[in-house]
Amino acid sequence: MLSHTASRAANRITQRYVVYHIHPHEGPSRETRNESEAEQHRENSTPSYRCRITMTNTAERRPGRPRDQNTHEAILEATRQLLLESGYHRLTFEAVATAADTSRSTIYRWWPTRGALALEAASEHLTIGRVPDTGNSREDLLAAIRQLINTFSDRLAGIVILAAIANLDDDTTMATTFRDTWVYPWRTTAADAIQRAIERGDLPNNTDVQFILNVVVGTVFQCTITLAKPMTEGLEEALLNLAFPSRSTTD
Description:
The structure is a single chain. The protein contains 13 helices and 2 strands, in the order ααβαβαααααααααα. It has helices spanning about 5-10, 15, 35-45, 70-85, 95-100, 105-110, 115-120, 135-155, 155-165, 170-200, 210-225, 235-245, 245-250, and strands at about 20-25, 50-55. By secondary structure, it is mainly alpha-helical. The chain is elongated. It has 3 domains: about 5-60, no CATH class; about 70-120, Orthogonal Bundle (Arc Repressor Mutant, subunit A), CATH 1.10.10; about 125-250, Tetracycline Repressor, domain 2, CATH 1.10.357. It has a two-stranded antiparallel ribbon. Helix content is about 60%, strand content about 5%.
């Protein structure tokens, strides 16, 4: 058995970030000066182990193996195909590993949850983001509407968006990542665009910014994700006219 001192030292490895090497003791140490000390040492050390401690600066350790770009892309492509073929609810790391000709441990090492994997696989299809400031109020809101329509009409994006909203795995990280990365940046900058339109006099001062956003998002969602075949013809212009009614209507 390990001596009490060595056992205590070994239990502190993760706390102190040191590496402990435990070696069986083969005789008195060099510091033992005489025979009586050696005899006493032997009586107290049968059998005994000496704990040699080598301090290791973990910050200087070599980093882990970097991602292999080919394997990384193969995993993402396999994920995209499986999502389109079977949906999110049937997506498993085992199925992805088989399709990508890799191991589940590799996937787990790079993506902690299938939600994280699905979001990265669909990231190029999630085109909602920051709404530009073009200097033209209608063009700004048109850009915002187009981002929504293009994203919600994309089948892969729709699958992942519904998974994030439905929270199928109770995966709060997936929902949070989706909102923080895509939803909130779009909504904040789209609100800014409407506010600029108010300041320019293109919209009345009493315009309800959040209501307009809710109408735009809800309408696009209903016309795209909830339908088997998106109904987007004329949708951009209809939403623009709703947000920017003609002067004759407002007079």
